[in-house]
């Protein structure tokens, strides 16, 4: 499974990239706003830290505008930048054209299996169903991932990857792994929580204490 960071904070990206297992980064206009940085500058810096796919989102609402922005981003930014497009009729049409250009895309704001399937038919490289935002409405976002994975199982020719997004906690990630989602994009906090285990910390403390004794005894 691919692990992506969902942030435009380059310090967080450097921290997690240093672990050696970061597969990509997703950004969106809200994350760019939070970074306080210039859009293209920060995406270019992210693309230099992580060589996996870096999602940069178009903001035009019409197909022609999305295609123009997508092509400009591809021209101006490093080759590992992929184009994030909202799941609207205009976005589907833009996805089809950018895919024909040879550009990888991530169709975002997906809240139903039908939307995911239509984005796949348009040629999307990734589809991004939002788990946490469904949970926020009182429904179970994980059902959407299950439904999409069932749909994909019925149509093995689909090559679009399911990128579980709007992840809020490690359990979301573990459930996505169980369901076979291809990719999970998560905040740095969730990445850290996934790695942390009190028994690892306690075990390591014990080993280090005992090793000091081995050194003191001159047996190291
Ligand atoms: O990148 C899109 C998605 O992951 C947004 O997450 O937490 O704003 O619902 P969130």
Can you put this structure into words, describing what you see?
- By secondary structure, the chain is of the alpha/beta class.
- It has helices at residues 10-17, 29-35, 39-49, 63-76, 89-101, 113-121, 131-135, 141-154, 170-179, 188-195, 198-216, and strands spanning 2-6, 24-26, 54-57, 81-86, 105-110, 126-129, 161-164, 183-186.
- The chain has 11 helices and 8 strands.
- An 8-stranded parallel barrel has the order 1-2-3-4-5-6-7-8, surrounded by 6 helices.
- β4, α5 (89-101) and β5 form a beta-alpha-beta unit.
- The model has no long low-confidence stretch (mean pLDDT 98).
- SN-glycerol-3-phosphate is lined by residues 6, 26, 28, 130, 132-133, 165-166, 185.
Write a short abstract of this structure:
With 220 residues, this protein is α/β, with parallel strands linked by helices. The chain is built from 11 helices and 8 strands.
How are the SSEs ordered, and which strands pair?
Layout lengths: L1 E5 L3 H8 L6 E3 L2 H7 L3 H11 L4 E4 L5 H14 L4 E6 L2 H13 L3 E6 L2 H9 L4 E4 L1 H5 L5 H14 L6 E4 L5 H10 L3 E4 L1 H8 L2 H19 L4
Parallel strand pairs: 1-2, 1-8, 2-3, 3-4, 4-5, 5-6, 6-7, 7-8
This protein binds SN-glycerol-3-phosphate (G3P).
The site of SN-glycerol-3-phosphate (G3P) has 9 residues, from helix 7.
């Amino acid at each position: 499974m691919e692990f992506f960071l969902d942030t435009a904070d380059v310090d967080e990206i450097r921290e997690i990239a240093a672990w050696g297992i970061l597969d990509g980064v997703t950004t969106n206009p809200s994350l760019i706003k939070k970074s306080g940085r210039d859009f293209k500058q920060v995406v270019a810096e992210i693309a230099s830290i992580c060589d996996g796919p870096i999602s940069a989102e178009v903001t035009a609402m019409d197909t022609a505008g999305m295609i123009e922005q997508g092509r400009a981003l591809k021209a101006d930014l490093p080759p590992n930048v992929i184009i994030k497009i909202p799941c609207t009729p205009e976005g589907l049409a833009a996805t089809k054209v950018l895919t024909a250009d040879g550009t990888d895309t991530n169709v975002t704001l997906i809240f139903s299996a039908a939307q995911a399937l239509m984005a796949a038919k348009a040629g999307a490289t990734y589809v991004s169903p939002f788990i946490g935002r469904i949970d926020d409405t009182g429904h179970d976002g994980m059902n959407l991932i299950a439904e999409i994975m069932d749909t994909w199982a019925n149509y093995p020719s689909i090559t679009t990857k399911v990128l579980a997004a709007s992840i809020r906690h490690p359990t979301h990630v573990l459930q996505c792994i169980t369901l076979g989602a291809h990719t999970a994009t998560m905040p740095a906090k969730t990445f850290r929580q996934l790695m942390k285990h009190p028994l690892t910390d306690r075990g390591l403390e014990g080993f280090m204490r005992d090793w000091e004794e081995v050194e003191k005894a001159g047996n190291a």
